[in-house]
Amino acid sequence: MAEQSSDIQPQNSQEKPMQRGGGEEEEEEEEEEEEEAEAAGEGGKDRASRAEGQVHKLIRRLSREQVQIRVHDIKIKGNRKTKDFVVEGELEEVKNAKTMQELVQAATVANARLHRLGIFKSATITLDAGPPELPDTANVIVEVEEDPRPFSGDIGLFSKPEARTWTVEGSLKSKNWLGYGETWNGTGSYGWDKTSEMSVGLSYPRFKGLPAAFMTRVSLLTEDWVKYSSYKERLFGLSVGLVNDEHHDLAYNLTWRSLMDPSHQASRSIRRQLGHALLSSIKYTYKIDERDSPVRPTRGFAFASTSQIAGIGLDSRLLRFVRQELDFRYAIPLGFYNAALNIGLSAGIILPWGKGFMNLATPVSDRFFMGGHSSPVCNLRGPTSLLGFRSRGVGLTDARRSNTDSSKVEVTCDTSGRDTLGGDLAVTSFADLSFDFPLKLFRNAGIHGHCFICAGNLTTLTGDQNRPVSFKEFSSSFRYSAGAGIILPTRLFRIE
């Protein structure tokens, strides 16, 4: 913190020398210059000592009591393109500070927010004393340096083991193009399984009076699930983010959805849902993660809750359902070989709403599907991960047209000729024990081992052909898997 000082510099009085001639006069002038230099040095030392004493006095005062102060002015420097109100929007708490302690804390938070905007190469906040005629005031000076490279992009080749396919993904991002702190980004991907996605998004930082940032995205997504469920899905939608911060995410989604059967062999349960539908929904996610690492947690907990209400609007043809997901993770350190026990529980339910909802089937695209090779330790994505089973490998199936038997049976392996239908109620749990190897080479590289046990099940709850399932039947039909493996962690993900 920098403060202006109103030190009064003492003036040195010098007697007027007597007039003398020759060398004596020159010698006296040199002596006078030396005396003046010594006096100036002593005066500088005195001023530095007084300034240091004032700083120590202020620090002691701040530690003993609340020092009342108010912000007189905010000065912004270095923003050649960025509008002033973009920076001011991150300084609301600074303006409202009533004490010096609040001002320092608010300035620290505001500085972190300016860096999180991602449009500045550097940002510095300096607190200075206000005008002398206005005591107990402060001026806030914000100096920013804009990023000289507003464009960025990347492209990569990714593997999806659960689907046994590869995808090429790329993105292009532009920041602060118009000077409003906005971020334009476009993404695209194409998979060997003919799954493709294109989207364009725009996000703004929070403005004055708004509690959070504003984000909107237009996307076109095509997913091919013919191999598992005999349908291909195309989504064209608009998503508007209303609240987005560290723990909360609230968004509105408007999506035009088309389900097609390119193979013309879909089962009766899938054929009933083919065609077009409009999804209008509000989705809210609350997430807290207090674990020491998202890749290999050894202590702490995490919790996530996702709620979705679909059918917002007056059109009776809108898809109408409520969907809820819950995730809980807890890591317990064991105190030897850096071992830790991770336990987790995930549950989800989806139900239609409206007149006669128990006879209505839920949309197949929004149901829960279980299986694949994604780690349940790291992910907080609902009850979807069940190690040891193929993608969409658990739950009810229905026979395709080529099969004369159209009755529904439960399967847990890859059975040709049947469509996986997913479930309305899903529950998964796991216990995972991770530990270091004795070899120092493995420990230094972060390579460690783990053993796990997983359990999960899902079932349907509504539909005109649905048979009610009792709690005893549901619990007795759980699927289980157990195993061990070696984990190679990286900064962003881990390889098992």
TrEMBL record:
Biased composition (Acidic residues): 24-39
Keyword Glycoprotein found: no
Domain POTRA, residue spans: 70-146
InterPro entries tied to this protein: Bac_surfAg_D15 (IPR000184), BamA/TamA_POTRA (IPR010827), D15-like (IPR039910)
Compositionally biased spans, kind Basic and acidic residues: 43-53
Gene3D superfamilies: membrane protein fhac, membrane protein fhac: a member of the omp85/tpsb transporter family
This protein's UniProt keywords: Membrane, Plastid, Plastid outer membrane, Transmembrane, Transmembrane beta strand
Domain Bacterial surface antigen (D15): 176-490
Official protein name in the record: POTRA domain-containing protein
Organism expressing this protein natively: Taxus chinensis (Chinese yew)
Lineage: Eukaryota, Viridiplantae, Streptophyta, Embryophyta, Tracheophyta
